[in-house]
Amino acid sequence: MDIMELKSEFADVKVEVDHSANRPRLMIQDLKTGMTNYLDPLELECLAWARHEDLTLLLDPSREFRLDNDDLRLQKMLREIGSIQES
Predict the structure, then answer these.
(1) In terms of CB atoms within 10 Å, which of 26, 52, 79, 82 comes out highest?
(2) CA gyration radius for the chain?
(3) Domain coordinates of the chain in residue numbers?
(4) Is pLDDT of 82 > 70?
(5) Cβ(70)–Cβ(77) below 8 Å
(6) How far is residue 5's CA from residue 19's CA, in Å, rounded to a whole number?
(7) Taking a C-beta distance cutoff of 8 angstroms, is the pair 70, 84 a contact?
């Protein structure tokens, strides 16, 4: 497996190619919280096309993530990002 750890003063993540699904996908894990997400090639392509300002809602340090409600918060942020991209 291809595994890479990336660290900065703001984040500590592990990135790995995951072959356990139907097709290869990228696994990204936050090493501080253990939160993990999987991105397929289409989702990765969308990131490649995204402008830096499209990601500002995700990068905003004033946003608070709570592990007990993270799915709802992430869905809301992604909807907000989608509305920015459509503008």
Answers:
(1) 26
(2) 14
(3) 1-49, 50-87
(4) no
(5) no
(6) 18
(7) no
**Are 23 and 40 spatial neighbours (Cβ–Cβ below 8 Å)?**
yes
Whose structure tokens read 């253990």? 34
Residues 6+ positions from 46 with CB-CB distance below 8 Å: none
- 27-60 pLDDT, tens digit per residue, is 999 998 888 999 999 999 998 998 888 888 777 7
Q: Which two tokens stand for residue 47?
A: 């990131």
DSSP state of 85: H
Residue at token pair 């290869």 = 24
Q: Is residue 80 classed as helix, strand or coil in its secondary structure?
A: helix
Task: Supply the pTM of this predicted model.
Answer: 0.65
Distances (CA, A) of 3 to 6, 23, 34, 38, 78: 10, 17, 16, 14, 27
Q: What is the pLDDT of residue 27?
A: 94
pLDDT, residue 45, reads 93
